[in-house]
UniProtKB/TrEMBL annotation:
It is a multi-pass membrane protein. It is found in: Membrane. GO terms for biological process: sterol biosynthetic process. This is Emopamil binding protein. Residues 59-205 form the EXPERA domain. GO terms for cellular component: endoplasmic reticulum; membrane. It comes from the Eukaryota. Keywords: Isomerase, Lipid biosynthesis, Lipid metabolism, Membrane, Steroid biosynthesis, Steroid metabolism, Sterol biosynthesis, Sterol metabolism, Transmembrane, Transmembrane helix. It comes from Metarhizium album (strain ARSEF 1941). Its main location: membrane. The keyword Coiled coil does not apply. Belongs to the EBP family.
Amino acid sequence: MDVTAPSHPYYPPTASIPTYVANDASVLRLLVTFGLMVGVVLGLSYWQTIQSPLRLRPIDRFAVMWFALCGFLHVGFEGYYVYNRTSIPQLQTVFGQLWKEYTLSDSRYLTSDAFTICVETITALVWGPLSWLTYFAILTNSPYRHINQVVVCTAHLYGVALYYGTNLGDFRATGVSYSRPEAQYYWVYYVGLNAPWAVVPLALVCSEQGRRRGRKEKERRHVANGVPVVFLHDSYKQTARAFRALQAQEAERKTQ
């Protein structure tokens, strides 16, 4: 019996991707190009931390670079997918070919999967701009930087959990895998390239919680060590002021 070979290299082989056109650029060329883009974003953001008049901690410098990169990837790379999602299989642009290479690890991006479209749209329209706002907030020491950082990090953790969870849930329920079986695609592309959005946000949230605990402890020590002295000093001044007022009233009565 003749079996028709799939017209694309994605999994499952039965996935419908009728407009697929193979990439004309090598994987090495695509990865080098993407790496240069990421390097430029990280380099420029690090340069801005050096030029900042603020005394940024190492974790703050790292956060600036991280949120600058998140903004670029969410708005630029993922926004490109959202806008061109129906034509990605046939595109030969740099981003189009990068998406076709990445989706060897998750074919949902090429099959109009509802979850994938929804989560990427929210990421591009909300979390991308908010990442850039957090980036600027850290550089300018805005009071909103801490709440922005916690919100974006929480969103990243939630998004990664859903992304991994829905894929695993589908596999356990139906036995369907969206990734090719080679380790390069599942462990490097699918697991490895998304893992930073679980590890880094968790580290930044823990750092933020540590900063808040340190500030509260400092305030507690300040209250324990300084307030009694201030309180006694203020009490002395208020008592002296009251005695002077009484003396003035007594002197006024004597003159009447």
